[in-house]
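Q: what sequence does this backbone want?
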Protein backbone atom coordinates (compact mmCIF):
# COMPACT_ATOMS: atom_id res chain seq x y z
CA UNK A 1 0.00 0.00 0.00
CA UNK A 2 0.99 3.64 -0.16
CA UNK A 3 2.66 5.36 2.79
CA UNK A 4 -0.30 7.72 3.21
CA UNK A 5 -2.76 4.81 3.31
CA UNK A 6 -0.58 3.07 5.89
CA UNK A 7 -0.54 5.95 8.38
CA UNK A 8 -4.26 6.62 7.76
CA UNK A 9 -5.17 2.99 8.50
CA UNK A 10 -2.92 3.01 11.55
CA UNK A 11 -4.68 6.14 12.81
CA UNK A 12 -8.12 4.68 12.17
CA UNK A 13 -7.20 1.44 13.98
CA UNK A 14 -6.24 3.54 16.98
CA UNK A 15 -9.62 5.30 16.77
CA UNK A 16 -8.15 8.78 16.41
CA UNK A 17 -9.46 11.66 14.35
CA UNK A 18 -7.02 13.63 12.23
CA UNK A 19 -6.89 16.51 14.72
CA UNK A 20 -6.17 14.07 17.56
CA UNK A 21 -3.41 12.31 15.63
CA UNK A 22 -1.89 15.62 14.50
CA UNK A 23 -1.81 16.79 18.10
CA UNK A 24 -0.13 13.57 19.27
CA UNK A 25 2.52 13.89 16.55
CA UNK A 26 2.86 17.65 17.18
CA UNK A 27 2.20 18.55 13.54
CA UNK A 28 -0.51 20.53 11.78
CA UNK A 29 -3.69 18.73 10.73
CA UNK A 30 -3.44 20.08 7.17
CA UNK A 31 0.06 18.61 6.86
CA UNK A 32 -1.16 15.26 8.21
CA UNK A 33 -3.95 15.35 5.63
CA UNK A 34 -1.39 15.86 2.85
CA UNK A 35 0.65 12.93 4.18
CA UNK A 36 -2.39 10.63 4.23
CA UNK A 37 -3.43 11.59 0.68
CA UNK A 38 0.10 11.18 -0.67
CA UNK A 39 0.47 14.85 -1.62
CA UNK A 40 3.49 15.14 0.64
CA UNK A 41 6.11 12.94 2.28
CA UNK A 42 7.61 13.50 5.75
CA UNK A 43 11.06 14.75 6.59
CA UNK A 44 13.19 12.67 8.93
CA UNK A 45 12.03 14.71 11.93
CA UNK A 46 8.32 14.41 11.06
CA UNK A 47 8.76 10.73 10.29
CA UNK A 48 10.27 10.16 13.74
CA UNK A 49 7.33 11.97 15.36
CA UNK A 50 4.80 9.84 13.48
CA UNK A 51 6.60 6.62 14.36
CA UNK A 52 6.65 7.56 18.04
CA UNK A 53 3.07 8.87 18.17
CA UNK A 54 1.60 5.94 16.21
CA UNK A 55 3.92 3.32 17.80
CA UNK A 56 4.83 2.15 14.31
CA UNK A 57 7.54 -0.46 13.78
CA UNK A 58 9.74 0.57 10.84
CA UNK A 59 10.18 -3.05 9.75
CA UNK A 60 6.41 -3.57 9.61
CA UNK A 61 6.03 -0.35 7.64
CA UNK A 62 8.65 -1.46 5.10
CA UNK A 63 6.89 -4.81 4.68
CA UNK A 64 3.50 -3.16 4.14
CA UNK A 65 4.42 -0.22 1.88
CA UNK A 66 5.16 -0.48 -1.86
CA UNK A 67 8.83 -0.43 -2.86
CA UNK A 68 8.15 2.66 -4.99
CA UNK A 69 6.82 4.43 -1.91
CA UNK A 70 9.87 3.44 0.11
CA UNK A 71 12.08 5.01 -2.55
CA UNK A 72 10.40 8.33 -1.73
CA UNK A 73 11.37 7.81 1.92
CA UNK A 74 14.99 6.75 1.30
CA UNK A 75 16.27 10.04 2.74
CA UNK A 76 15.05 8.85 6.14
CA UNK A 77 17.86 6.95 7.83
CA UNK A 78 15.78 4.18 9.44
CA UNK A 79 13.90 3.48 6.23
CA UNK A 80 17.08 3.50 4.13
CA UNK A 81 18.77 1.08 6.50
CA UNK A 82 15.76 -1.25 6.46
CA UNK A 83 15.56 -1.16 2.66
CA UNK A 84 19.27 -1.96 2.31
CA UNK A 85 18.93 -4.83 4.78
CA UNK A 86 15.98 -6.22 2.83
CA UNK A 87 17.83 -5.87 -0.49
CA UNK A 88 20.83 -7.72 0.93
CA UNK A 89 18.60 -10.56 2.11
CA UNK A 90 16.88 -10.72 -1.26
CA UNK A 91 20.26 -10.74 -3.03
CA UNK A 92 21.40 -13.63 -0.86
CA UNK A 93 18.14 -15.46 -1.53
CA UNK A 94 18.44 -14.96 -5.28
CA UNK A 95 22.09 -15.99 -5.22
CA UNK A 96 21.21 -19.18 -3.35
CA UNK A 97 18.61 -20.08 -5.99
CA UNK A 98 21.10 -19.37 -8.79
CA UNK A 99 23.75 -21.57 -7.16
CA UNK A 100 21.18 -24.33 -6.62
CA UNK A 101 20.12 -24.05 -10.27
CA UNK A 102 23.72 -24.22 -11.48
CA UNK A 103 24.42 -27.30 -9.36
CA UNK A 104 21.27 -29.02 -10.64
CA UNK A 105 22.14 -28.29 -14.27
CA UNK A 106 25.67 -29.63 -13.73
CA UNK A 107 24.23 -32.78 -12.14
CA UNK A 108 21.73 -33.14 -14.98
CA UNK A 109 24.47 -32.78 -17.58
CA UNK A 110 26.58 -35.31 -15.69
CA UNK A 111 23.69 -37.78 -15.64
CA UNK A 112 23.20 -37.43 -19.38
CA UNK A 113 26.93 -37.86 -19.99
CA UNK A 114 27.05 -40.94 -17.78
CA UNK A 115 24.00 -42.45 -19.48
CA UNK A 116 25.55 -41.82 -22.89
CA UNK A 117 28.81 -43.51 -21.86
CA UNK A 118 27.11 -46.68 -20.58
CA UNK A 119 26.44 -49.32 -23.25
CA UNK A 120 22.78 -50.02 -23.72
CA UNK A 121 21.17 -53.29 -22.72
CA UNK A 122 20.74 -54.69 -26.24
CA UNK A 123 22.54 -57.95 -26.98
CA UNK A 124 22.21 -61.10 -29.07
CA UNK A 125 20.71 -64.35 -27.81
CA UNK A 126 21.72 -67.60 -29.52
CA UNK A 127 19.37 -70.58 -29.31
CA UNK A 128 20.82 -74.09 -29.61
CA UNK A 129 19.01 -77.43 -29.85
CA UNK A 130 20.12 -80.99 -29.23
CA UNK A 131 18.05 -83.91 -30.59
CA UNK A 132 19.30 -86.34 -28.00
CA UNK A 133 22.23 -88.03 -26.30
CA UNK A 134 24.90 -89.41 -28.61
CA UNK A 135 26.41 -92.55 -27.13
CA UNK A 136 30.13 -93.15 -26.95
CA UNK A 137 31.47 -94.49 -30.20
CA UNK A 138 28.62 -92.99 -32.28
CA UNK A 139 29.16 -90.35 -34.92
CA UNK A 140 28.20 -86.73 -34.09
CA UNK A 141 26.05 -86.97 -37.25
CA UNK A 142 23.95 -89.87 -35.92
CA UNK A 143 20.74 -87.86 -35.65
CA UNK A 144 21.16 -86.49 -39.18
CA UNK A 145 21.53 -90.11 -40.30
CA UNK A 146 18.44 -91.18 -38.34
CA UNK A 147 16.42 -88.26 -39.79
CA UNK A 148 16.74 -89.70 -43.31
CA UNK A 149 15.48 -93.10 -42.16
CA UNK A 150 18.64 -94.92 -41.16
CA UNK A 151 18.66 -97.05 -37.95
CA UNK A 152 21.31 -96.86 -35.28
CA UNK A 153 23.47 -99.70 -34.03
CA UNK A 154 20.55 -100.98 -31.94
CA UNK A 155 18.04 -100.63 -34.80
CA UNK A 156 16.26 -97.75 -33.07
CA UNK A 157 14.55 -95.10 -35.16
CA UNK A 158 14.76 -91.33 -34.72
CA UNK A 159 11.43 -91.14 -32.87
CA UNK A 160 12.65 -93.71 -30.35
CA UNK A 161 15.82 -91.79 -29.52
CA UNK A 162 14.72 -88.15 -29.69
CA UNK A 163 15.12 -86.37 -26.36
CA UNK A 164 15.31 -82.67 -27.10
CA UNK A 165 17.32 -80.25 -24.98
CA UNK A 166 17.66 -76.51 -25.54
CA UNK A 167 20.11 -73.83 -24.49
CA UNK A 168 19.86 -70.07 -24.95
CA UNK A 169 23.25 -68.37 -24.70
CA UNK A 170 24.57 -64.83 -25.00
CA UNK A 171 27.80 -66.28 -26.38
CA UNK A 172 27.96 -67.38 -29.99
CA UNK A 173 29.49 -70.85 -29.99
CA UNK A 174 29.29 -71.25 -33.75
CA UNK A 175 26.95 -73.44 -35.75
CA UNK A 176 27.31 -76.30 -33.27
CA UNK A 177 29.19 -77.41 -30.17
CA UNK A 178 29.65 -80.59 -28.14
CA UNK A 179 28.82 -80.90 -24.45
CA UNK A 180 29.57 -84.05 -22.41
CA UNK A 181 26.63 -85.60 -20.53
CA UNK A 182 26.02 -88.83 -18.66
CA UNK A 183 26.13 -91.76 -21.06
CA UNK A 184 27.83 -89.85 -23.87
CA UNK A 185 27.53 -86.32 -25.17
CA UNK A 186 25.12 -83.94 -26.81
CA UNK A 187 25.62 -82.01 -30.01
CA UNK A 188 23.91 -78.61 -29.86
CA UNK A 189 23.08 -76.96 -33.19
CA UNK A 190 22.28 -73.27 -33.66
CA UNK A 191 18.70 -72.81 -34.87
CA UNK A 192 17.88 -69.19 -34.02
CA UNK A 193 19.42 -65.87 -32.96
CA UNK A 194 17.53 -62.80 -31.73
CA UNK A 195 18.25 -59.34 -30.38
CA UNK A 196 17.20 -58.91 -26.76
CA UNK A 197 16.78 -55.86 -24.58
CA UNK A 198 17.95 -56.16 -21.02
CA UNK A 199 16.91 -53.53 -18.44
CA UNK A 200 19.85 -51.31 -17.58
CA UNK A 201 20.61 -48.20 -15.55
CA UNK A 202 20.58 -46.00 -18.66
CA UNK A 203 16.92 -45.06 -18.45
CA UNK A 204 17.29 -44.07 -14.81
CA UNK A 205 20.25 -41.84 -15.62
CA UNK A 206 18.25 -40.09 -18.33
CA UNK A 207 15.29 -39.67 -15.97
CA UNK A 208 17.45 -38.15 -13.25
CA UNK A 209 19.20 -35.98 -15.82
CA UNK A 210 15.89 -34.54 -17.02
CA UNK A 211 14.75 -34.05 -13.42
CA UNK A 212 17.90 -32.12 -12.47
CA UNK A 213 17.82 -30.01 -15.64
CA UNK A 214 14.18 -29.07 -15.06
CA UNK A 215 14.96 -28.33 -11.41
CA UNK A 216 17.86 -26.08 -12.44
CA UNK A 217 15.71 -24.16 -14.91
CA UNK A 218 13.03 -23.79 -12.25
CA UNK A 219 15.61 -22.32 -9.86
CA UNK A 220 16.67 -19.78 -12.49
CA UNK A 221 13.03 -18.90 -13.12
CA UNK A 222 12.33 -18.40 -9.40
CA UNK A 223 15.41 -16.23 -8.96
CA UNK A 224 14.39 -14.11 -11.96
CA UNK A 225 10.81 -13.71 -10.76
CA UNK A 226 11.98 -12.87 -7.24
CA UNK A 227 13.84 -9.86 -8.54
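A:
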Amino acid sequence: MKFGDYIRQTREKAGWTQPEAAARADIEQSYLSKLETGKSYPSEDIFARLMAAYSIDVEDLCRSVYAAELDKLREIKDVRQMVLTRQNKESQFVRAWLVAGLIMIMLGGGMFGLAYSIPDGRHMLYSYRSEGVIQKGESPMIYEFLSVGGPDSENKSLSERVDYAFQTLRENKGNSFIEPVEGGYRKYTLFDSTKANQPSAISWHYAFGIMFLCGGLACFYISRRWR
